[in-house]
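Handout, section 4.2: multi-component inputs.
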Amino acid sequence: MSEDIILDIKDLQTSFYLDDFEVKAVDGVSFKLPKGKTIGIVGESGSGKSITALSILRLLDHPGKVKGGEINFKGRDLTTLTDKEIRQIRGNEISMIFQEPMTSLNPVYTIGQQIRETLKVHQGLDKENGTKKAIELLKLVGIPSPDKRVKQYPHELSGGMRQRVMIAMALACNPDLLIADEPTTALDVTIQAQILDLINDLQDRLGMSVIMITHDLGVVAETCDYVAVMYGGKVVEYQDVKSLFRNPKHPYTVGLLKSIPRHDTDVDELEPIRGSVPSPKDMPKGCRFAPRCPFATELCMEELPSLDHVEGESEVRCWIYTDHWDGDAEVKAHGPKRVAQSN
Amino acid sequence: MRAEQVNNVMTQKTDHPFTRSLKDFYSKLRKNKSALVGGYLIIILVLIALIGPYLTSQTPEAVDYGVKLQGPSAEHWFGTDHHGRDIFTRVIHGLGITMGIGISATILGGIVGIFLGLISGYYGGKLDAIIMRMMDILLAFPGILLALALISILGANLRNVIFAVAIFAIPTFARIVRGSTLATKKLEYIDAMKALGASDTRIIFKHILPNILSPIIVQASLFIATAVLSASGLSFLGMGAQPPSPELGALLSDGRDFMWDAGHIALFPGLVIMLIVLAFNIFGDGLRDALDPKMKK
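Output:
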């Protein structure tokens, strides 16, 4: 098992140092990603999911800093590499695609020039071979008449096409890991599905691992093998995708699932999670979710639970699953999902 | 969009990218009449400066006291000065010298300013603070005073005029470039390039610089006007081109003593200086409008 793990993040801590206080954007995140699999990192805005991704590639801007923890990628700890070493990994072994395809391409260069750029940086390909490879890559990501597209500028392409180009650039050097930071958020629904299919398909063909960062559980269901749910800079639940949808454990996950429409049950009104993400300035002392949690007890408010194994591979950070919890007996017996449903 | 336009888009031939952006640029520029007039004026002035000296029959330094202080005539279009030199010939030769100083000072100062602005804006922090405070110090001097001071130290000749004018070009370019760099480095495609493993040098010069060229070009065009004025001003004060060089400011200075008796000596070089400055200014203004996406229509 262990040699198949391509990425192993241990207790990652990333903070932003502002003038008078420290914002712990990512606070002790750990997860493992097996080779060829997809992990989804789910959470609301401000939960630290994008910062986790940026920390892996060390792309944080000042005043953000990885404070502690390990990011083991193929046996190397990325946090200890020099700038030059990490540059050789970026785009080559780990690639990233971004949320905004409309602005993620440089407007002054043609598509071909931009794809060639990556190839030149990492493989030193000249113009002729680079263009050939660029056309191949565009074909791979399903762009029609790629030989014409290489000569076009970004503004001549639609959002979906641009995201395909971004994917082509990211795949130029056959990376082992692709980080997709909300790759479909800015696209309309039909294009979203196409892009997700494309990522899935390419993953199968190229055998790469994917970290899918999203707030959309639909995207998770469609693409991921494992899911880490993040809240307030911490992972609150880690499960394989089927278990997560069938049997969500953390009250936050339960709330998330209840706030999306389903086609198999008839509900008049979706139920939102009340309240909002806590400000990093005054994080709750106990469980980060406690102030919004319908089942919270005094214990939840006072002390932070740890991320523990419950069944098999599933991990959850919640007092309900411990012996210390003294809240509603029904919740304890049947889990928050059943109880929430019957209400 | 009308059907034929759609059709045009669908069937449009794909030119080489560079030709296409040039065409695009020209069509934008064409809509702006003043920029176009300024542009043509610059082209004409440059052509005269380059070719003119070979077409005049006289040499600028040829002295003929028999015809001194004559007004414009068929033989001497702009008249003659107190040494009987043909002013038309001198102005034609001086045009090249003055524009040459203005353009080379702008290029020289521009390159240094652009470089400082780029690294200052991209890296930020202490480096930024140090560079920009140095620029503030330079900006605190009135440009012409700084140039005068430098030339009095270095000695009065054309090379030092270029150098002095270039020095006060640096802060204006550095500021504009720094501002644009700050805005551009935050854009997603710069992050995307970083994520693809590009080095800082590559990002700065290959990805940021081409995207901030428009304000640089506009600034360069406007600064050439300033540089021409400063350069001829310095020569007028005797701190630049030395007699008998026909630099326009020096010609103006020659005419100073004869303003009431033979006004044409100062008039023609003055007019040409004005024309150069006007051409670059209206071209720069028009260029700014043409290149600014917010000003479309």
